[in-house]
Design a protein that fits this description.
D-Maltodextrin-Binding Protein, domain 2, single chain, binds beta-D-galactopyranuronic acid, alpha/beta, five-stranded mixed beta sheet
Amino acid sequence: MKKVSIVLLSVWLATFILAGSPASVFAQKVLKLGETHPQDYPTTKGDYEFARLVKERSNGKMVIEVYHSKQLGEEKAVIEQVQLGAIDFTRVSISPVSAFVRDLDAFQLPYLYRDAAHMWKVLNGPIGQEIFKKLETSNFIGLGWFEAGSRNFYTKKQVKTVVDLKGMKIRVQQAPLMVGLVEALGAVATPLAFGEVYSALQTGVIDGAENNWPSYLSTSHYEVAKFFITDEHTRVPEIMIASKKVFDKLSKEEQTIIKKAMQDAQPYQIKLWNEFEKVAEKTVREKGNTITEVTSQEKQKFMDAMKPLYDKQPPEIIAVVNKIRAVK
Ligand code: GTR
């Protein structure tokens, strides 16, 4: 009997010493975060930084486990699970979220932001906060934004001008606005999950897709769609969302820790993003892919072709677009 209690006492003591206090062991909350990208991608590293800050600032009481590489599923399915409260967090492109909250369309229209600095001023300012209120009505808590550069078309046959895209089957994210964007160029939009794009390109189900340099490289799409055109048709920010069902059950203090941690993880992700974007571009160029540089005249043609997409937007979207454009 004595031996047993000594063993139990030492186990208890060891736990106490390792964890800092017994309360942190018993009251620990383990939360799941779904991420589509691989572990070494800059955005995933941003997720890890967010998780690290939450753990540190909650003295180990909140632990966010990052499930990278689609372990929890493709973005659309994960977003649904977050809405239901079955997954706690996800870092996603706003495109698939816009299928749930159409107000997000105002943030991903083509050639909307003048540059990255303009986008950051918008996202980190009052307009970015406003959209978080809209997200709540669909059971999402917007925690903050990450960088994702601008998106460009890449194809199996060379595209030199906007006219060349006519009739081509182009994969888009599962979002109505992205379908409209590609259709405005006279191409055939094919919404597909991210993980299905490589084989769809390989087998010729689609003629091309569109994304930023880092994803073009990390997915190996550059192997099966060797022509890339630097049209930079849109900047689609990335967002960290929490499930409102889960978030509402946390204490005010815990909620603040989470929000602040995401804010503080942002500059780290942006830094890694900017570094990797250059590396990705350089790597793809060195692999010998054909990169068509878009002249400012040709870019104007892309912009003109996208105008009807703006004309189709409802007044509430245009109101936000005008506010975004007014940000100097
Ligand atoms: C990437 C983005 C992913 C995913 C992907 C896609 O740029 O980071 O979250 O949305 O694009 O095209 O599906």
